[in-house]
Amino acid sequence: MGPAEIELDEVRDPAFLLVITHGAGGGVDAKDILAVRDSALDAGGAVARVVQPYRVAGRRAPGNAEKQDQAWLEIVAALKARFPGTPIVQGGRSNGARVACRTAVEVGARGVIALSFPLHPPGKPEKSRRDELLAPGSIEVVVINGGSDPFGVPDAADAAEVRVIPKQAHSFRTGFDVIEATVTPWFARWTADH
């Protein structure tokens, strides 16, 4: 898959490491990703914002999910080696949220932040990705979606928390304070026994 790029915000003796990634055609400077990063830093975590290999190579589409997940697992393994014994929290927006959910068990994540989880392609609710959202099993997933997201909004019963920001589409234009307020208590919960 080629190299990834990592924007790393380090802190002394981190309570956890948040590894978070972008949507299919996006980058790690999306305002919702930055809102989660800021909350994680405030909670004493280090943050790795990962530009996945396909984006570094200039492609807009991630391609094969299996290869994408394999590349992600290698990236997280390298980060774990740099932060030994530090609890991992995964996160992503849209396609990145799918990756974070699909790989959470193998990574051993404490929790998952799923921004704009794309429940189905626009206009095709029959092509549900609910199984990916449920893939983490007992690992808690916090979903934050816009109320008018054409990719759908997951059912509240399918995650530890589903926060819906009214009148927001797939890319958030406002509500960043809501995102920060939603994730902050979860970071504390996931690292309470660190």
TrEMBL record:
Coiled coil: none annotated. Residues 17-161 form the KANL3/Tex30 alpha/beta hydrolase-like domain. Signal peptide: none annotated. InterPro entries: AB_hydrolase_fold, KANL3/Tex30_Abhydrolase, NSL3/Tex30. This is KANL3/Tex30 alpha/beta hydrolase-like domain-containing protein. It comes from Nocardia fluminea.
